[in-house]
Amino acid sequence: MDIIQLKDSIELGTVIVLSLIAILLLMLSGMASGSEVAFFSLTQRDMEELEAKTDASARRVVELMMSPDRLLATILVANNMVNICLVIISTQIVDNIFVFAGVGDFIFKTIVITFLLLLFGEIMPKVLTQGNPVKMSLFFSGPLKILRWMLYPLAFILIRTSSRVSRFASKGAEISIEELADAVDLTDTGSEEEQKMLSGIISFGQTEVVEIMHSRVDITGLEYDAKFGEVRKTIVETGYSRIPVYGEDLDDVRGVLYVKDLLPHISKGDDFEWQALLRKPYFVPEHMMIDDLLKKFQKKKIHIAIVVDEYGATQGLVSLEDILEEVVGEITDESDEDEDRLYEKIGENTYIFDAKIHIGEFIRAIGYDEDSFADVEGHAETLAGLMMELKRDLPRRGDELESHGVKFFIATMDGRRVDKVKVEVNA
Fold it and tell me: What is the CATH classification number for the domain harbouring 393?
């Protein structure tokens, strides 16, 4: 007996109707598969171009992509419903034409129907659509908007169920910043610069403004009543493109002078009222996280901020460059000089540090853990402050201090302020 035979009596009308339905369902399956690829292959640039258009199709695409979860759920629900119906109809067609013996029924239906469904309902639509996602998304936008309305209850249930499963699954996959940092330390990137950049990215969201700012004593400012000649001289001597302007002292910052705003007036005399060019200063708290500050800079389109404490007193200044250096490392240009560096390695385990360096940066430079000096640093924020905490008195030139396997030598003083510190790290 043959495994497969034609039936003696075939209901031709029934087969034709079922075949037409199957072809329609196969087209719908292909549309669902193709639309998934079309919509979720749109780039940010594609979306910007669609947003700029005024035709109805473009507006529908933008509207659908505003809720990507709901769109994907609609496509998946529709695709699966169509595929189920297609399998049932295809089975009816085969049963109306052929008679099977043994396992031939199962093998034929499984192989043939699955092959046709995958080829014409999944693979070909996705391949064809991927080449022109914008055009195809515009084409599919109308039917999908109707389907999104029709299948909303099922799509809603799918979204809520998947979100609950996702939250449950993510609980066991959480990783702490410390674990991530340890993973980076164990990773061999083959480049010290890449290793530092990865470490910078990890600590980016955990770094406060106070840790990267230029302290108050290092701010170059202009007096509000200064003559224009003094302003020009300060600009030439410092090379800064943005300079804070203050009234009585740095706690009274009245604005920020952008050097580029002065260019049309550079030849004017001392009586020129340059104060009219000041831009409004932007103040930030010292404990703001630098990732939040970066977002503020981007939103306000500014590059500099004045750092203040809880009483409103100026503590320092922070720039966009300072934030970026936390990730990419030191950024230098033709106006930067070597002596501006905050430390220099003069031996295998010996350094010369500028005392104004922040404690966090100092610790990273010598290769210690972030909390190594937490028990002795007190309220100190710079290496000079750490020297005062260790001595419990005003440091003097020639003082030798030791803590946590590190020897400190006060090399130079600038008046009563510690200037340079020689550091020896025990290997």
Answer: 3.30.465.10
